[in-house]
Amino acid sequence: MARHKPIRAREFLRSDQTTDSDDEWRYAVEKLHRLQDLVFEIMVERADELIVISGNVASEQVKRLIAEILTDYDPKAQLSNELEVTAPFRSAEDDDFTIEMKGGLTLDAITPAPIISVERYPSFSSNEKPAVGRKFQFEVDLSTIQGGREAIKFDLPSDWQMVAIDVDVYSAQLVMEEKMKRRKVALFEDGRSLPARFQGEVVGVTEEGTVDVLVKFTCEGRASGMARVSFKVEEGNETEVAGSSPAQLGVAAMNAQVRATPPDMTISIYKAGPPTSWIWMVDAPHTQNLGAAQRHGTIDMPDPEAFATELLKQCPTLTKPRHASRLRGIGEQIWARAPEMFRLLYKDMREKFGPRFSIQIMTEEPHVPWEMMFPDGQSGIQNPDHLFMTHPICRWSATYARDMRPQIESGSIASFVPNYPGGQALPAAIAEGRWLVSSLGARAMDPTWDSFTKFWTTDLPKERVAVLHFAGHGENKPDPRIRMLDAYVSRDDVNGAVKLGSRDGTFVVLNACEVGTADMRLGLASGWTERLIKHSFGGVLAPLWKVEDDCASEAVRTYLGKFCRGMPMGMALLQARKAQRDQSATPYAYICHGDVNATMR
Fold it and tell me: Where do the domains of the chain lie, and which CATH numbers do they carry?
């Protein structure tokens, strides 16, 4: 591909109201030059406090990157971005990931290029140390240098040139302008990168004397990973500090598949700031003018587990037809605990897009079933309903974000359904297993402890296993476990010896009916889902509370019948819930861990 003309800054008057030294301008020009292969021509002009950018660039993504560079140069100036997207052979209206992502600028690029894996490592730097009452500036980058950090892996077309990653930051110790809370890091195929610069006023420090920053990476609307970094505050609050701030780093990354279907809304929930505080970061493409200007919000929840347990303890005893009213009340209580910025954005998205847009939850908080939220009477939403009765919605652990798969590979179905003796059999569960065999070609397995545990450890089948299914009894004490014919399989049996998930990315169904205790929450904080996700299983379907045999079986049949035939994970569960919602509280109990738009193929 021929190079474009280099960037030409024909005239640029620096602002008298900023510390825009020659070094600052040279730094901005250096960053602009890194985009030269994606820019045809650019002119930057200034009139008083207005910066005008004009010219022609190859994509909307490049247009926004240039605007960010000049905003960093003079944050107080107004910016008029008159750049035109004039990429050949492509509509200028295509948003976000554009020709540089899709490979090639010619008509020869009709066949998708082969996919390759590209790894980058989060890095953080600053030429100053934070001091209370002062501005603090730092940069976030994705580097080719490991530095002891876990990589974020991107699967990109082999002829990619540039990809831009959205970066959101939050710190309880910094006050930041809204435009400074989300920036972009640009990655180039030759290993170069364009870091994102952030700035905020230091308003406090942690007990350890640090400014702690939470960083979330998003690739084409799909969560790509997160990191935490701590900057040591300068003792004595000196205004000038030489050298780089020492930073402590923790990272949870994911394999960002650019050809995956991103959700319409991503809710990321992280522990941040004070011990009882949780930060919500909401990402929703094409909603710039909807809801509040903020996309970050905090909630105070001292004990999420106690809150969830108190709400859900009555659910196993709810009976038809009163169950719907009680569950609505529970959903409204959960709605009231969500941050206001989310509630406002959700309202506007419902009005603009209707009730079927997809929602992905990425969370470090495993107890509260946010999927059950029901907008209350003050929400202003017409015909409200539970989120998981109106939207495809799934969740995933933010700790293991890199293992969320955009698809489940097709393969066999292994079904373990014990026929318990002594009058303890579950007829609907047995019928469910037979249906899987007759309708979906499942293989009925020997439902013993030895057979089950060896199946995913030492006796892996030769064929790929798409679904591992269990239907039977379970109990919560002394630990969450499911009952085979001869013994219990505990969550502690999900350990390093388990190889099936890493080999096949198998989807797991734990349909534990009549579990025996009302506080059983197999679908959330029992430890089962976290253990299965940790060992690379591709998704988990399990109930929140004790469920009824007949309704549970019907819900799982409906779900697997649709999911195994190609319907996306979240939509399949939405339809399964809705089909049985009037019969009992059981359909409300099911929570799915996985990529909301993942399909089996």
Answer: 22-93 (3.30.300), 115-259 (2.60.40.10), 278-400 (no CATH), 407-600 (3.40.50.1460)
